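Researcher: Re-running this chain for the archive, since the previous output was lost when a drive failed. Same request as before.
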Amino acid sequence: MLKDNVETFLGCDTPYGEARIVLFGAPFDSTTSFRPGTRFASRTMRAESYGLETYSPYLDLDMEEARVFDGGDLELCFGDTERALGDIEAFAHGILMDGKKPFLVGGEHLVTLPVLRAMKERYDDLAILHFDAHTDLREEYLGARLSHATVMRRAWELVGDGGLFQFGIRSGERAEFYWAREHTQLQKFDFTGLQETMERLAGRPVYLTVDLDVLDPSVFPGTGTPEPGGVTFLDLLGAVRCVLRHDPIVGCDMVELSPHYDASGASTAAALKLLREMLLAWEAPQIRAAI
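Model: Regenerated structure tokens:
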């Protein structure tokens, strides 16, 4: 199932047996409702990661000290959504069975769902933190229950009321916002209340999903459904660091980069820098304990 890659994300070359975190790509965007292209994100990020330093001046840590294995990109069927999701779930399940933590790079946001399914089998009291511009709470989209517009509704079905916490949301149908009042904790526009939420979740297993369109398009135009009024890069960096100090964080993902919508490459660079910071923040206790 797992094999060495010729090309890896920068600094993610720890052998599988020694790694604590397994990074892998899910290049799938078959349900994208506006502009496709997220299937190219992980490949582009991997290739362009060599323009990024392994050292983080924010954390004073280096990716060369982190124990991260790059498992490569999955080969996913674009004509059968259920089959593609099943393959992602099986891969995530294998990582968990080996006592390691998955970090998924999408792909559209629907690829989060199968990882959550694998997580829920292992962690009954799982909580989900969702950073996004969009609610993603529709019951169906154009008749389909499996879509990047419905992914958080399907996630809620796994964890129920009190299990889904949403931040940065600024777009969705009225019915979604009204439904969220009864079933999720939804913070519009920013990360207000995030620290208090993490205190409430102390000791509970948490999965963090980051849709990069939570960033303002002036910062991050390279996405399929850009929404003005988003957060800054430093806002998002502070938020993910707040979350990743929590124990235990059991899984993460980063989704919805469409690199060809930003010819400058700035959006890919932002995604890569955030990825480095998330991995190092997640690994920080183990790295510092070993120094």
